[in-house]
Design brief:
Blueprint: H1 2-18, E1 27-34, E2 37-45, E3 50-63, E4 72-86, H2 89-94, E5 104-114, E6 120-121, E7 131-144, E8 148-161, E9 172-186
Antiparallel strand pairs: 1-2, 1-9, 2-3, 3-4, 4-5, 4-6, 5-7, 7-8, 8-9
Length: about 190
Amino acid sequence: MKKITLTLIFCALTLIAKSQTASVENSTFGIQTGFLGIWAHNEAKLSNQIALRSELGFDSGIWGGSFYDKTGYVFAPVITLEPRWYYNLNKRVKKDRRIDGNSGNFISLKTSYHPDWFVISNYDNISIVSDITIIPTWGIRRNIGSHFNYETGIGIGYVYYFAKSAGYLENKSDVAVNLHLRIGYKF
């Protein structure tokens, strides 16, 4: 009788432990690279499903054609704050899929600022017009092994150019697109 009781208690404790709510990690650090840039990021837990991603990095651009002597490139600094809602963590846990490193689907509000502090380019005297973008984004992040991950996302939002500070007559705004595919390393 004691064995049956102990077995039932053990099974009940296992079920209780399995039914815990899935959660994003308290804090993750990593670096990511994509086709047009490199970034270092941190994600801090705000709630079980929401993390605040802060990111510093370089966005890049390439240009060329018959009007230029050579193909040009530019790396410009970018600062990003992005609250992310990982909406399918519980579903992933129920299906025995990984959620470590905040692996899951997310919806975010990506807010980026490109300051005109400096640029890295193969042309001399290049500068950029500072801008701020606010882009609602849907994306996924998945792990490859214990430290590597990949991430993709898509969104359409708003960009505001601080053109007056660069010598233009007025500031401008436009539609912005966020389409990213990145591979990264989690520390």
